Amino acid sequence: YFVALQRVNPNTAVDWEFQGGDVARHVPDREFKYVFWAFGPAIRTFEMCPPVISVDGTHLCGHYKRKLLVVVAQTANKRLLPVAYALVDEESTGSRSFFLRNLRRYVVFDKQICVLSDRDVGLRSAIESLPDWQEPAAYHRICLRHLRSNVVTRSKKIRDWCWELGSQLSKQKFRQTKQRLQEFNSDAYNYLFNIPLNQWTLYRDEKRRWGTLTTNMSESYNNVLKGVRFLPCRALVEATFKKLWICFDKNKTSPADAGVPLLICTMSHFCSWSKLPHLTRWNVRSTTDR
């Protein structure tokens, strides 16, 4: 089935890792341990997307008790793009390393990339074991929503401050909120500020996140896949192909078709800003800055 997909979808990448079997002992039977795939259209589209990905995994519920790893990106119009998948036996450092190696080899290439995730120890170990997934080739950032949920508190004020610290761009406002949190709850303050600031705050992010604070894109796509978790492996692969086709079909409207000169997402921001009393016009110019 994968061979057929590769034949009709150029640049589709597939890689296998097997276990079992011993030719010397005349035990030829073996089964796949991991399989990675990324469809050609998704690979080509990802080249034009912001270099930010969210990595997540989900359990399969059918006869084959495996895990499905997924990488999801966003287009410039904030539309979900499922980039790559892997079926693995478990979510371990080994399976994640297999996934990331193939993601770099077939999808990311030599592109600098930002990886968003929760504080997953296995993923962090895999990243640390792969030189081409370390800075400056790749930057690991923490999902702000997961981080906020790890701050054990019943105080809504602390949760709000945590979010404000992570999403704040102003140096002055960041320091003000930091001081309020330190005075109000030293435990929450110590927990947050023992984590490197560039991993969870926009203020010190160096524009690696491209403004993306959470892993909502991969978790939202996992909800899309909820109905296919009971399928056998081949049917699951086919379902991921159909889901990708649906994504492309829904998002095929171009700015020209929409009657606007810019990306739809960008144009919506301009329209909202134009309603502000102090802003009556804007200038648009090309730039190669990040």
TrEMBL record:
Domain MULE transposase: 52-150
Descriptive protein name: MuDR family transposase
Coiled-coil intervals: none
One Pfam family hit: MULE
Species annotation: Striga hermonthica (Purple witchweed)
